[in-house]
Amino acid sequence: MTATPIRLVLADDHALVLEGLRSLIAAEPDLQIVATATDGERLLDAIRRFHPDVAILDLQMPYMDGITCMQHIRAENLPVRLLVLSAFGDAHSMRTAIESGADGFVLKTDPPSMTLTAIRQVAAGQMVFPQAARRWLAPRSLADPNMLTEREESVLVRVAEGKSNAKIAAELNLSESTIKFHLRNLFAKLGVANRNEAAAKYHRRNSE
Predict the structure, then answer these.
(1) What is the rounded distance in angstroms from the CA atom of residue 72 to the CA atom of residue 78?
(2) Residue 149 covered by a domain
(3) How far apart are CA 101 and CA 97, in angstroms?
(4) pLDDT tens string 1-60
(5) What's the whole-model pTM score?
(6) DSSP string covering 125-169
(7) pLDDT exceeds cutoff 70 at 85
(8) Gyration radius of the chain's alpha carbons
(9) Domain holding 10: CATH number?
(10) Are residues 13 and 105 in the same domain?
(11) Which of these, 15, 54, 71, 188, is most buried using a 10 Å CB contact count?
């Protein structure tokens, strides 16, 4: 019995990139392109219409850029994994992508095989980022809760409410591996070892 292919929507404002991706993916029997887009507005419409498993998008697109598009997708709780394919691998771009709800980030300069692997990993619920990003994505221990990002704060609130990773993931429309990623970061920032200590610190902070 043949497994159902991973349904994809591709978004990039460069026709050459879209054609290259289309050719790359066409040779993969477990991947299927259901739509393409050249800007964020068309991507958002395609996701609403075709319900893909994964959207592969550039950050820089006309009319609506990738970051804004991802924020709309997450705000609407559309059930799609988001893989950023960008020419820019700087810390700001990757951090902003994560905060906007990206499940993965690959570079256009990476070998095609890495892009295919990233698509499959993101579709399976994994979080995929370049190795170079992990050095700054893993924060140093900071005791100041004000250093938490908005996404980390959202996770912490739900941890303090006693919710499981699965429940938090469902509420924020993220994968469980993404929630674990955010938990590691906020544990380090709060200087705690586990979710019970994090919850206790949250309640103490809000009772002061």
Answers:
(1) 9
(2) yes
(3) 6
(4) 457 999 999 999 999 999 999 999 999 999 999 999 999 999 999 999 999 999 999 999
(5) 0.68
(6) T--B--HHHHHHHSPPP---GGG--HHHHHHHHHHHTT--HHHHH
(7) yes
(8) 18
(9) 3.40.50.2300
(10) yes
(11) 54
